[in-house]
Amino acid sequence: AGMNGTDIENFVCVIFNVSFMNCTWHVGRTATEDTQYYLYWRPSKEEDITECQNYVKDDCGRHMGCRFQNVTIDNNYAYFLVNGSRSGQSIPISDYIIVEKLTPPLNVSVNCTEASHRCSIRWEPPRTSHVKDESCFKYEIVIENK
């Protein structure tokens, strides 16, 4: 248990371009300028917990986010810990959300034949930091006449 109102809110991590991850949070409602937060994470059960090396800070110098490079998450497992202190007392943490913004499908090709008035469209699944099963993806094709 920590001091009421100092716990972080809206902890969200977004993975983009396959290997970059930005985590952000809002400082607690009653957090004073001497409140500081620290983010630790472990991307797999086999790896050690490491602290953020690239914090994003607010105007008071409080950590309110972190930027990661070369992110991989094995077997849909990731462990996050945000803790901190205010005047030497610990701060509670809240739940988190991880979102991955996918890249478009790769190697899209279209092959149309005039004789049959048909087209064949092929592509490869987008690269992702952790999804290995191609059946997880659903695609939507929008065809426009020009």
UniProtKB/TrEMBL annotation:
Q: What is this protein called?
A: CSF2R factor
Is Nucleotide-binding found in the keyword set?
A: no
Q: Which InterPro entries match?
A: FN3_sf, Ig-like_fold, Short_hematopoietin_rcpt_2_CS, TypeI_recpt_CBD
PROSITE patterns (alphabetical):
HEMATOPO_REC_S_F2
Q: Which GO terms describe its cellular component?
A: external side of plasma membrane
Chain's gene name = Csf2ra_0
- Chief subcellular site? membrane
Sorted alphabetically, the keyword list is: Glycoprotein, Membrane, Receptor, Signal, Transmembrane, Transmembrane helix
Is Cell membrane given among the entry's keywords? Answer: no
Its membrane topology, per UniProt? Single-pass type I membrane protein
Where does this one sit in the cell? Membrane
Residue ranges occupied by any Type I cytokine receptor cytokine-binding domain in the UniProt entry: 11-97
Task: Cite the SUPFAM superfamilies for this sequence.
Answer: Fibronectin type III
GO MF annotations, alphabetized = cytokine receptor activity
